[in-house]
Amino acid sequence: MFDALAGAPLNHLLRAQAWARAALQPHAGKVVCLRCLPFETRLTVLDSGEVAPAVAGVEPAVTLTLTPGLMLRIAAQDDTAWRDIVIDGDTALAGVIHHLWRHLRWDAEADLAKVVGDIAAHRIAGS
To answer: What is the C-alpha separation between 10 and 61, in angstroms, rounded?
Structure first.
C-alpha cells in the first residue's frame, strides 16, 4: 500500500524534470527499499526513469534505513541528515537518490496554474 502512495507523488515530480528521469534510467530494473520501521516501501526503477511498486519477493539493490527522527530532519530539509541514513547495497544508486533528494523540487505554482490560471497561481504562491 505504501509503495503505491510513495510512487505517485514521486512520479509526478520525475515527470516534470527530464534530468531526474535521466539520472534514474541507468538503474532501470533495480529495486529501492526505503525503511523506517515499522514501515517499508519498495519501488522499482522503470526504463522511463519513473518508479513503480516493486514485485513481492524481489531483493532490493539498495536499502536506505531511516529513523522517525531522521525523517523529521529530512522533511525540514536538513542537509546533514543524509549522512545518518544507513545504506546497504548499491552505493551508485544511493548516490543518485541523494542527488534527487537534494535537487528535485515540486513546482507548486505550475501545478496550481493548471487549476486557477497563471496570474492567480503566481499570487497565491507568492503570498
So the answer is: 19
Q: What is the reported pTM?
A: 0.79
Give the mean pLDDT of 119-123. 67
CB-based contacts of 34, cutoff 8 Å, min separation 6: 6, 40, 41, 42, 43, 63, 64, 66
Contacts of 96 (CB under 8 A, 6+ apart): 23, 24, 27
Q: Is 74 exposed, middle or buried (0-12, 13-18, 19+ CB in 10 A)?
A: middle
> Where are any strands of DSSP class E within the chain?
31-36, 39-45, 51-53, 62-65, 86-89
CA angle at 59 for the pair 54 and 61, rounded to the nearest 5°: 90
- 24-36: per-residue pLDDT in tens? 999 999 999 999 9
Rounded-to-integer distance, Cα 33 and Cα 30, Å: 10
